């Protein structure tokens, strides 16, 4: 982790605002939970978002926040998030993967037993997207072009945006940002490019896949490029499981969770290490930026959901996750909101280290 100069570590403001930077995990349709969390947080009039970071669905939520803030502050952000998810629901209503009502109710919104998903899953195991989708059609293209104004977003600096993608050839993380005027349709498609479903996305001569493999989400730009010491992580993928996965589906789902949590666990461990050095007096106070970490999650919402549910844009499912997100945020606000700007409310050691 790079050293952060003291000049970049502005710790307090005197206007009474609750300034934070927010990191959002990806997870397909599960990102509707993040929508609910954000919708509730943005109701707080003194809540100010300085920076947003995301991968995949987290990136879509992040750019929706920036687009909406640019158009109309907190209420504008709430409207932009609603537009994005409403558009996804409408697009999903024509998808052959849409599960039937019985499938949805019997399997708690997962699609593992849906005949259409079984057929699709088998196809993806034997054919690459270059074979079953030779022209490279990506349903996100029209949604992204319809909803986001990248020319304006790249000049809008009130909310700094950071989107992670994975460089195909090197496996390294790439962060696209509006502070370098890099937001575009291509960078949005790159951060959400699952290589088993879509063609790799070409951005300025380089190929990229989903950012979840290397930064889900990426934290360090929120430390280095944002002034607020408060970083809020909106987490989707369960960290803890209390039973051994036995079926091939359960094993695959758990592997997916571990893979998509690896990068955030690594960054959180680094932050914990730096904070401990400061607390132990090994690094003088003020020499490095001390961060306040806040975590909003509800693993109980996702423990019974398989990977296939990330493809489920059924309106009832999306609104179920949205409402769960709002309820989770409401509980967090009641318990922790007053500590923003003062101290961490997440036990980083217990969650990510021990």
How many angstroms does the end-to-end distance come to? 20 Å
Major β-sheet profile: 8 strands, mixed
Based on helices, strands and strand pairing, what is the structural class? alpha/beta
Order of SSEs, N→C?
Answer: EHEHHHHHHEEHEEHEHEHHH
Average pLDDT works out at: 86
Computed over alpha carbons, the radius of gyration is: 20 Å
Number of helices: 13
Q: Approximately how much helix is present in the residues?
A: 40-55%
Written account of the structure:
The protein is an alpha/beta fold and 354 residues long. Helices cover 44% and strands 13% of the residues. The protein contains 13 helices and eight strands. The chain has helices spanning 31-41, 57-92, 101-106, 115-126, 129-132, 140-147, 150-153, 185-191, 220-224, 248-279, 299-302, 315-336, 348-353; strands at 18-24, 47-54, 160-167, 173-177, 201-203, 206-210, 230-234, 292-296. Helix 1 (31-41) crosses helix 2 and helix 1 (31-41) crosses helix 12.
Mind sketching the topology for me?
Layout lengths: L17 E7 L6 H11 L5 E8 L2 H36 L8 H6 L8 H12 L2 H4 L7 H8 L2 H4 L6 E8 L5 E5 L7 H7 L9 E3 L2 E5 L9 H5 L5 E5 L13 H32 L12 E5 L2 H4 L12 H22 L11 H6 L1
Helix pairs in contact: 1-2, 1-12
Features:
354 residues; alpha/beta; 8-stranded mixed beta sheet; 13 helices; 8 strands; globular; disordered N terminus
């Amino acid at each position: 982790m790079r050293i952060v100069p003291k000049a970049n570590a502005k710790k307090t403001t005197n206007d009474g605002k609750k300034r934070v930077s927010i990191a959002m995990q990806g997870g397909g349709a599960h990102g509707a939970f993040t929508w609910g969390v954000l919708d509730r947080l943005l109701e707080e009039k003194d809540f100010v978002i300085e920076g947003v970071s995301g991968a995949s669905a987290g990136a879509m939520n992040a750019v929706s926040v920036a687009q909406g803030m640019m158009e109309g502050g907190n209420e504008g952000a709430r409207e932009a998030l609603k537009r994005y998810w409403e558009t996804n629901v409408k697009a999903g209503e024509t998808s052959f993967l849409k599960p039937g009502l019985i499938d949805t109710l019997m399997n708690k919104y997962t699609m593992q037993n849906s005949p259409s998903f079984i057929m699709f899953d088998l196809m993806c195991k034997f054919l690459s997207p270059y074979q079953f989708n030779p022209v490279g059609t990506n349903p996100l293209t029209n949604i992204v072009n319809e909803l986001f104004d990248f020319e304006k977003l790249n000049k809008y600096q009130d909310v700094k945006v950071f989107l992670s993608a994975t460089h195909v050839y090197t496996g390294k993380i790439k962060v696209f940002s509006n502070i370098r005027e890099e937001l575009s349709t291509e960078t949005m498609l790159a951060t959400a490019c699952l290589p088993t479903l879509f063609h790799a996305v070409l951005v300025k001569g380089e190929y990229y896949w989903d950012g979840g493999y290397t930064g889900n989400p990426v934290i360090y730009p929120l430390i280095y490029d944002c002034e607020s010491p408060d970083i809020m992580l909106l987490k989707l993928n369960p960290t803890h499981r209390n039973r051994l996965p036995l079926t091939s589906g359960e094993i695959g789902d758990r592997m997916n969770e571990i893979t998509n949590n690896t990068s955030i666990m690594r960054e959180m461990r680094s932050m914990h290490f730096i904070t401990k050095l400061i607390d132990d007096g090994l690094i003088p106070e003020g020499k490095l930026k001390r961060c306040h970490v806040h975590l909003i999650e509800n693993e109980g919402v996702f423990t019974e959901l398989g990977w296939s549910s990330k493809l489920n844009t059924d309106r009832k499912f999306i609104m179920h996750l949205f409402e769960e997100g709002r309820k989770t945020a409401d509980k967090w606000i009641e318990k922790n909101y007053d500590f923003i700007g003062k101290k961490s409310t997440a036990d980083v050691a217990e969650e990510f280290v021990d």
